[in-house]
Design goal:
heterotrimer, A mainly alpha, B alpha+beta, C alpha/beta, A: mainly alpha, 2 domains, disordered N terminus, B: alpha+beta, Tick-borne Encephalitis virus Glycoprotein, domain 1, four-stranded antiparallel β-sheet, 12% strand
Chain lengths: 145, 649, 178
């Protein structure tokens, strides 16, 4: 029920504008513009299903983009802006999960898996190399597929 | 009448699928060959009934029968005929029916193609497929019946979701589902092999062409979906790491691993239990994807309407099917032993690395996709996971995979003798590095640090894939289809790596506001805004903005992106205008009327982006060629002639 | 036990996570506010009744209040209004309105027509205060204690059950009612 209401709200808000968000913001400093684009693409639109504020047509996303712009112009760092957003909307707004105790598993998983995979591969290859002497299977080495 | 007929046909299909599952699984178990023989007729009946149900639903759509709830919700009398047909799979209920139809078609194909397999074995395969059909039919009838009537009938329909009114989307789901469902065949073969205790590599050989064909369809389906998102959603992106996209990408990654491990199992009898597990996992991930998309547990741009009761049903079904298969695995896999040996430089090692890296990549995508759910379930609070997580972690396993592939492609089975190929490896790497850096700095420049590296790897893949076939052609050696197909597929991958690299590194994108007569220059292209004019369609009206595009003073194109307002759903969609020029995709999307004749417009110059989808198509074509290799058919005939090959290594 | 049971074990854990996920899925749209337990964000905004008068949120502390975010463009807010009037008549807690991205004359007409449950209405035309409060869709309602700390947030229309189950128990006992 609540989801229904929520979606309805989002839809009603969205209906007021277009489906496509265009953001004609152009900061004079290209480095700042680059950071602006990067940041708006990694902040989540709170009213939408799964979009960044850069892609979202809803009003609130435009307000948040303006916040990002103003804070960049005021000399805030990317991290300060992310923290500012998260303090208001929670970690839900960050498409780049912050590294913390509760997200450590997520960030460490690829590296740990890679190490584990390397270890397992090494063990299998070593085992199989020892079996080579007793393996009389004569494969057709021409056949490559 | 038609909806009732369809509903009735669906109920009959459920019963027949039940019979198919029962006879196929129980028959061989108790040794009753007459039961086993009843499987094929049951399947034939099921397929006919499912086809009848689909035909009835399509007929209701075509005939604008708005007394059917599903038709009233997803169609309209103003909708063009083509979309009235494709609206059949435009929402949850109908797409489920499409899934069931495709499963029936794959089952029939297996029944025809496996006519020469041992009868008990093929009965088991069809029995497992029947069980899958039964589950999905029960799900449809219990929670998602598309034939429910509306009383009183709606005067007119609520129309198909406008963003689905597009030729790309009309063909995307059938192809994607063909891929998804196709992995059910590998799953069924694996389960049949475990049920029967036929755990040598023969099942792997039998299942190889099916798996490769399913993989080809899934590849095409994902690429089509990405292409559709690119030109229809209006953002101009081609991959968003959205849960729904990931749901199709995970089976693709594990399916790719399966295609490669099947080669090792078929050829050397190696990794037998691992291949079984991959066959189970690939289809399990397809089903899990269905669950994630339809149960509403994840938030996504294009998921179906959420409904927890459906979620509970699918979860129960998943537990029965996946849990059952994995229990069977835990019981049977310990019996598998292989004494085959190989050395570090051998082809087997590289297939092993391929599998390890692909499974790690899939696990990473899995972890990221399910992280919001896992975090919530463990009480760790909300978390969002998006491209800033997926992009780097995916690259972490994909770059080594691509590089290892260029070496491994030269390796022989069993004994590596990579030293023989050292010259070829180094020379191809050198050539690729020169070309890669040349293209990066010569044509584009200003890339990321990884740009020349990834570019080199992409080119290296293409060169490496070509070395062996060219050598064979020069020596007048035979060139089997499996090798041709593999080469084409690998070249497709190389093309994809190159395209992704250029797109990620050199895309120029800006949203500008222009008034009539003004120009803007972006990424070397100058566009002059001529004005807007109204456009009209069968069920929408809108405006088209005209832009004259030039490059260095020379005319390139006149582009007219549109904004459409659909009457019935009151939804606005953005129809992008796309032009390919000098390998660049120039995309224009019309934004808002800013007043006083000013309009905002998105301009995007993506170099080589078309190559991404072309690359996927090349891969799929390669796979299709490999799947048609005569060796599989010949091998199958030989085996059935010799009876059961009991090669317990 | 052997390593071949591992996939089954992992799948069992996954099924458990998915089951919990289904149970929680109806609340998917509700994002837990990081403001709970923290000091209510400060704002100084014009008063809807008298735009020359500035409402400073620091002046509100020292007693319990409900901050209700609304707007005349918001369909759900109209549905909620009846409940707000009930809250007002109960006299248990004062309602402070935050009129979000709205036009003054429309908002004033709305209150004249439907009745005014608010003690004060602050006008947030630019939407900046709403961002500070982490508002992402009207209506939203915050319960603030006398120390100026946010103790509860409700997203969506306030209804009878939220009022009796979530808000009333958090308030001190009504004077004279024991």
């Amino acid at each position: 029920m609540r989801t229904g209401l929520f979606l309805m709200m989002a839809l009603l808000l969205a209906a007021a504008t277009s489906v496509l968000a265009l953001d004609t913001t152009q900061l004079a400093d290209p480095a700042l513009q680059g950071r602006y684009l990067a940041l708006t693409h990694e902040l989540r639109c709170m009213q939408c299903q799964n979009e960044s504020i850069a892609d979202s047509p809803v009003d609130l996303a435009a307000d948040l983009r303006n916040q990002v712009r103003d804070q960049l112009l005021a000399g805030k760092s990317d991290e300060e802006i992310r923290n500012w957003m998260a303090a208001r909307y929670g970690d839900f707004i960050l498409f780049r999960p912050r590294f913390a105790a509760r997200t450590a598993w997520l960030w460490l998983a690829p590296g740990v898996l890679l190490l584990l995979g390397a270890f397992i591969s090494w063990r299998i290859v070593r085992q199989r190399a020892q079996l080579l002497a007793s393996d009389s299977d004569s494969v057709d080495e021409d056949q490559r597929s | 009448m038609l909806p009732e007929l369809g509903h009735f046909a669906l109920i009959l299909a459920l019963l027949l699928a039940g019979l198919q599952a029962f006879f196929g699984i129980a028959g061989p178990m108790v040794g009753r060959d007459r039961w086993s023989a009843a499987v094929t007729p049951a399947l034939a009946g099921q397929a006919v009934m499912v086809a009848t149900a689909v035909a009835c639903l399509i007929a209701s759509f075509v005939g604008n029968d708005f007394s059917v709830q599903y038709v009233a919700d997803n169609s309209n009398s103003a909708l063009p005929l083509f979309y009235r047909v494709s609206a059949m799979w435009g929402a949850h209920e109908g797409s489920l029916l499409l899934w069931i139809l495709l499963l029936a078609l794959w089952s029939v194909a297996v029944a025809v193609g496996s006519a020469r397999l041992p009868p008990r074995f093929s009965a088991r395969v069809l029995g497992v497929l029947g069980l899958v059909s039964f589950g999905f039919l029960l799900f449809t009838l219990a929670t998602s019946n598309p034939f429910l009537r509306l009383d009183p009938p709606a005067p007119d329909g609520r129309d198909l979701n406008p963003i689905l009114q597009d030729p790309g989307l009309a063909i995307h789901p059938p192809i994607l589902y063909t891929g998804y469902v196709g992995f059910a065949v590998a799953f069924a073969f694996a389960c049949a092999a475990m049920l029967e205790g036929r755990l040598d590599q023969t099942w792997a050989r039998w299942t190889r062409p099916w798996t490769t064909a399913a993989w080809a369809f899934l590849t095409c389906g994902i690429a089509l979906g990405s292409f559709w998102a690119y030109y229809e959603l209006g953002w101009g992106g081609f991959w968003f790491w959205d849960p729904v996209e990931n749901a199709s990408f995970m089976p693709w990654l594990v399916g790719t691993a399966l295609v490669h491990s099947l080669a090792a199992t078929d050829k050397r009898g190696l990794f037998k239990s691992w291949t079984l597990l991959l066959a189970i996992l690939t289809f399990s991930l397809s089903m899990l994807g269905t669950f994630l998309v339809r149960s509403g547990v994840l938030v996504s741009v294009h998921s179906f309407a959420a409904d927890p009761s459906r979620g509970i049903f699918i979860l129960a079904f998943l537990i029965v099917m996946i849990g059952g298969a994995l229990s069977l695995y835990a019981w049977r896999a310990p019996l598998l032993k292989s004494t085959a040996g190989f050395e570090l430089g051998a082809r087997e090692s590289f297939l092993l690395f391929n599998n390890v890296l692909l499974v790690i990549a899939a696990t990473t995508v899995f972890a990221g996709t399910l992280a919001p759910l896992i975090s919530d379930s463990l009480g760790l609070g909300t978390v969002s996971v998006g491209p800033p997580y997926f992009n780097p972690t995916f690259m972490l396993s994909m770059l080594p995979l691509a590089a290892l592939m260029c070496v491994g492609i030269h390796a022989n089975w069993k004994r590596g003798r990579l030293s023989d190929a050292r010259r070829a490896i180094l020379l191809s790497l050198l050539a690729a590095a020169v070309l890669g850096c040349g293209i990066t700095f010569g044509i584009y420049s200003n890339g990321h640090v990884l740009t020349p590296v990834a570019m080199t790897i992409g080119i290296w893949i293409i060169i490496s894939s070509l070395i062996e076939p060219l050598y064979r052609v020069r020596r007048h050696l035979s060139l089997p289809r499996a090798l041709i197909g593999m080469t084409i597929a690998h070249m497709g991958l190389g093309t994809g790596v190159i395209a992704l690299t250029t797109v990620q590194s050199f895309t120029v994108e800006r949203d500008v506001s222009l008034s009539v007569g003004e120009s803007a220059t972006i990424g070397g292209y100058t566009l002059r805004f001529v004005g807007v004019k109204p456009v009209e369609g069968p069920n929408y009206e809108g405006v088209g903005g005209t832009f004259v595009v030039t490059r260095g003073g020379k005319p390139v194109a006149v582009m007219i992106p549109q904004k459409r307002q659909f009457w019935i759903q009151h939804q606005v969609t953005s129809e992008t205008a796309i032009r390919v020029d000098h390998g660049n995709n120039l995309l224009l999307a019309l934004g808002e009327d800013l007043g006083a004749g000013r309009w905002s417009v998105r301009v995007q110059v993506r170099p080589l982006v078309s190559l991404i989808w072309l690359a996927a198509l090349i891969m799929a074509i390669g796979a299709a060629i490999a799947a048609s290799d005569r060796r599989y058919r010949a091998a199958r005939a030989a085996e059935s002639a010799a009876g059961v090959v009991a090669e317990r290594a | 036990m052997n390593r071949f049971y591992l996939p089954l074990g992992i799948f069992a854990l996954l099924a458990l996570v998915l089951a919990v996920g289904i149970r929680h899925s109806p609340d998917k749209g509700i994002i837990v506010s990081p403001l709970i337990g923290k000091a209510a964000p400060r704002f100084a905004l014009p008063d809807l009744a008298d735009p020359s008068h500035v409402i400073d949120s620091t002046a509100l502390s020292g007693r319990w209040y409900l901050l209700n975010v609304w707007g005349t463009w918001c369909v759900e807010c109209r549905a909620e209004h009846e409940m707000l009037l009930k809250v007002h008549t109960s006299g248990r807690v004062p309602l402070i309105g935050l009129d979000w991205k709205d036009e003054d004359d429309r908002a004033q007409a709305w209150l004249r027509q439907l009745g005014n449950p608010y003690e004060l209405v602050a006008v947030d035309r630019g939407g900046r205060a709403a961002i500070d409060w982490g508002v992402y869709g009207a209506p939203e309602t915050f319960l603030v204690n006398p120390q100026g700390v946010v103790v509860y947030k409700h997203v969506g229309a306030l209804d009878e059950s939220t009022w009796t189950r979530e808000i009333l128990p958090r308030l001190p006992a009504a004077p004279g009612k024991g």
